[in-house]
Write a structure and sequence with these properties.
The structure holds two protein chains of two kinds. By secondary structure, chain A is an alpha+beta fold. Chain A contains seven helices and five strands; from the N terminus they run ααααβαββααββ. Chain B is globular. Classes of the chains: A alpha+beta, B alpha/beta.
Amino acid sequence: MSQVDIRERRRSEHAHGRRARRGVERLLIDAQEQERRRLSRELHDGVGQRLALLSAELAVLRDRLTDSPAALEQVHRALAYTAEVGAELHRVSHELHPAWLEQLGLAASVRRICTEVSVAHRLAIHLEIGEIPQQLGLDAALCLYRIVQEALHNIVKHSQASTAAVRLEADAVDIMLHVSDNGLGFDPALEHQVKGVGLVSMRERARYAGGDLTLTTQPGQGTRIHVRVPA
Amino acid sequence: METMSIDATWDPGVGTPDNRSSTKGFTAPERHGPPRVLLADDYEGICRVLTRLLRASCDVVGHVNDGTRLLETIERLQPDVVILDFRMPGINGLEACREIKTAKPDVDVIVCTAADDPWLPVRALRAGASAFVLKFRMGVDLLPAIQRTRSVMVLAHT
């Protein structure tokens, strides 16, 4: 076998290895989405039903407490807490499986998650959403939604940022997503060590949808993520 | 380009007992007596506790846990209001609501759901439902929903 043949063979093996890894990445992402969907359904059907029971039982108790204003006050509070837990359950369930994405589309879902993160973590978020094609496929929409979710999670957890910006726009070919913050930033050489899991997952998502992700960051200069996926 | 700044200065705080609901003060329309209520939910526990919750102000005429027997049960028990779980075996909640309103336009349907579906309230109301209640808020919202529904009925009949 000549040296040229050996080089060709190695190139072919590397290409085959890359394809196999992409295949595994796709399988992992699909499996993760299926598992999240299952958990979301269990939260609704299991915990949700028991919360309904609790809410109704508390209301029965409320109607029996005719001569104890203090106890009545407590039951009213417990009812309000139950409703709050229910709303939180919806939020977590939505994080696991964004049913809204299928119902209302990417723009509304991104608006919702930005609002939720802003309220929950007191983070000012500047949001810009351009014209997004109505026929955007669910795979691409889910990819972009998960990247926004992961990026906001990273900002809240690691960046110490006071403000963030999310921009979603489209041209004739692609959908572009930009997420930035004014937080700590980090040395990009440490990407895989410091915050590897989230960023690797975001890159895989972008690749899964046929696009790519670029990260720009330096210590003390915030972080900018730019994603481009085919519309 | 739509732009929006979200600055979370709002403090959701803890639960305050606003919008309190109670059976006290709720009197059913005199000319009809207490509203006859049919519970349609495949979860027995919910039917049992709702029966206890509603019996002070409503006449709970029965419950059905199989969607395929819903119309037949309505025909037999003649309720004024059906509390309909959106997700029941054997039926599509919206379709069931439409069928009830077609067969019995005077029957009020209150759709209950645990699902987080942004369009469901609108679809339920379009299908003829009188009200829409999230299941985890049943203790707070269900009686006022029946009360409102029945008030509208009284106005419609006077």
